[in-house]
């Protein structure tokens, strides 16, 4: 794909200002903008709660103010070092921080609610992942000029452009729409469940953490399904014999490892376990002799050897009484929890 | 096996796994569609829809694993050395 007749080393401008790099920047830009919005929301949140919470609360609040800017700096580094996965991780981290501490997230004067914010995060994440395709190509070319001319029919060229540019973008946007639709429908479906479950599910879906986890779960499932369909097709067109053999060997590796382990197994003589037991008993006796009051260990030992029950010390009596009361409390709590579970089962299934 | 003077190696990995995988994928799509149907009005079978979706996920996983293994084994078979 590179031009072999070009002996000159690539300049900095040609390395960072090619068409592919600009496409990559455009694809990861929404993630950076979203991170900026989240950072502004975090910084603009008053830190009174943190200040009152602890003696070092002001220092913690100052650190919280610094975190978004550190995240932004790390994101810029991730973009210029062509690491979209790091960028996505930072985006999701900033989103979680903003959703946890910020009162509201605004973008260009418009106030975003949690549902809008989740859609923004999912869209930015998918676009950044689509940009990874371009980033990988840029890494492979290492600044060399790509030779993308083709002497084939126009249809093949159009198909190549579609697969390279339009398909990742279309897949990302389709996934965003699918996730938004599914998460929206889940709220309506939750209301159809039986009475206690519908209330619980609706409350869960209305909460911040519930919406976030549901969206992440649905997005993960959608990506998994897409990967399941695409992986065999991509393997069919790209796999060579050496990689296929490696793949097959890696698939049977757990089985071969366990077979080798079984074949190499030799029963031990038991000496090591005996030594360990003796060492454990010696350590136990030493600890008892050290931590018990003076003379207590020898008295208890002699009483045990004489087969008489040792008279409990006041501390032992106190500990025994507290353990008994704790046991009674645990029994009561267990009986109460049984009653609650019975009530819930009766409510659900009559 | 010698046929017509030429020696051909028998196929060790049958195409049946490919077709079984494709059939499993088709069944998984059916279950995904059934899960959508079960929660679309007027039907309100939410639990059955969830179960159908889970069956679809499991069948999709099994089908694609079969197809993937067939593709990998076929590449190895075509290049035995």
Number of helices of chain B: 2
Average of per-residue pLDDT values of chain B: 80
Mean pLDDT of chain A, nearest integer? 77
Main sheet attributes: strand count, strand direction, barrel closure of chain B: 2 strands, antiparallel
Instruction: Specify the biggest β-sheet of chain A.
Output: 2 strands, antiparallel
Helix/strand-derived category of chain A reads mainly alpha
What percent of the residues of chain A sit in helical stretches (DSSP H or I)?
over 70%
Q: Kindly, what is the distance between the CA atoms of the first and last residues of chain B, rounded to a whole number of angstroms? A: 20 Å
* Helical segment count of chain A: 13
How many β-strand runs of chain A? 2
How would you describe what is shown here?
The complex is a heterodimer of chains A (350) and B (81). Chain A is mainly alpha-helical. Chain A has 13 helices and two strands. In chain A, strands 1-2 form a two-stranded antiparallel ribbon. The longest helix of chain A has 37 residues, at 154-190. The N and C termini of chain A lie far apart (69 Å). Chain B has 81 residues and is mainly α. Chain B has a domain at 24-66. Chain B has helices spanning 16-39, 46-78; strands at 2-3, 6-7. In chain B, α1 runs antiparallel to α2 (46-78). The longest helix of chain B has 33 residues, at 46-78. Chain B is rod-shaped, with a radius of gyration of 20 Å. Chain B starts with a strand and ends with a helix. The chains are: A mainly alpha (350), B mainly alpha (81). The A-B interface holds A 185, 189, 192-193, 221, 225, 228-229, 231-232, 235-236, 239-241, 244-245, 247-248, 251 and B 25, 39, 44, 46, 49, 57, 60-61, 64, 67-69, 71-73, 75-76, 78-79.
Task: Summarize the model shown.
The complex is a heterodimer of chains A (350) and B (81). By secondary structure, chain A is mainly α.
Features:
heterodimer; A: 350 residues; mainly alpha; two-stranded antiparallel ribbon; disordered N terminus; B: 81 residues; rod-shaped
């Amino acid at each position: 794909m590179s031009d072999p007749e070009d002996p000159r080393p690539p300049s900095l401008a040609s390395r960072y200002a090619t068409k592919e790099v600009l496409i990559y920047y455009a694809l990861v830009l929404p993630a950076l903008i979203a991170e900026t919005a989240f950072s502004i929301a975090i910084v603009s949140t008053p830190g009174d709660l943190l200040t009152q919470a602890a003696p070092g609360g002001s220092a913690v609040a100052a650190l919280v103010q610094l975190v978004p800017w550190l995240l932004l700096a790390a994101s810029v580094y991730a973009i210029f070092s062509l690491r979209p996965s790091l960028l996505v991780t930072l985006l999701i981290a900033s989103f979680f921080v903003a959703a946890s501490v910020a009162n509201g997230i605004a973008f260009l004067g418009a106030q975003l609610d949690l549902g809008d914010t989740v859609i923004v995060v999912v869209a930015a994440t998918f676009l950044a992942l689509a940009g990874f395709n371009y980033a990988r190509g840029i890494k492979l070319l290492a600044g060399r000029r790509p030779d993308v001319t083709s002497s084939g029919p126009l249809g093949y060229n159009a198909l190549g452009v579609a697969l390279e540019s339009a398909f990742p973008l279309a897949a990302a946007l389709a996934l965003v729409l699918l996730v938004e639709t599914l998460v929206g429908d889940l709220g309506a479906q939750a209301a159809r469940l039986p009475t206690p479950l519908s209330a619980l599910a609706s409350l869960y879906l209305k909460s911040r953490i519930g919406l976030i986890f549901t969206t992440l779960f649905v997005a993960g499932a959608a990506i998994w399904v897409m990967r399941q369909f695409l992986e065999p097709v991509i393997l069919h067109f790209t796999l060579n014999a050496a990689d296929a053999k490696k793949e097959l060997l890696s698939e049977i590796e757990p089985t071969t490892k366990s077979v080798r382990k079984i074949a190499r197994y030799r029963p031990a003589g038991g000496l090591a376990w005996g030594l360990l037991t003796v060492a454990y008993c010696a350590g136990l006796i030493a600890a008892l002799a050290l931590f018990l009051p003076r003379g207590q260990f020898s008295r208890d030992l002699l009483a045990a050897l004489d087969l008489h029950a040792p008279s409990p010390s006041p501390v032992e009596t106190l500990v025994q009484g507290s353990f008994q009361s704790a046991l009674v409390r645990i029994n009561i709590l267990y009986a109460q929890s049984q009653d609650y579970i019975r009530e819930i089962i009766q409510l659900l299934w009559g | 096996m010698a046929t017509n003077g030429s020696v051909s190696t028998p196929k060790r990995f049958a195409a049946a796994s490919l077709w079984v995988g494709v059939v499993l994928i088709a069944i998984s799509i059916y279950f995904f569609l059934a899960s959508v149907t079960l929660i679309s009005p007027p039907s309100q079978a939410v639990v059955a829809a969830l179960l159908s979706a889970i069956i679809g996920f499991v069948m999709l996983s099994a089908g694609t694993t079969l197809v993937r293994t067939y593709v990998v084994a076929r590449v190895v078979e075509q290049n035995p050395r």
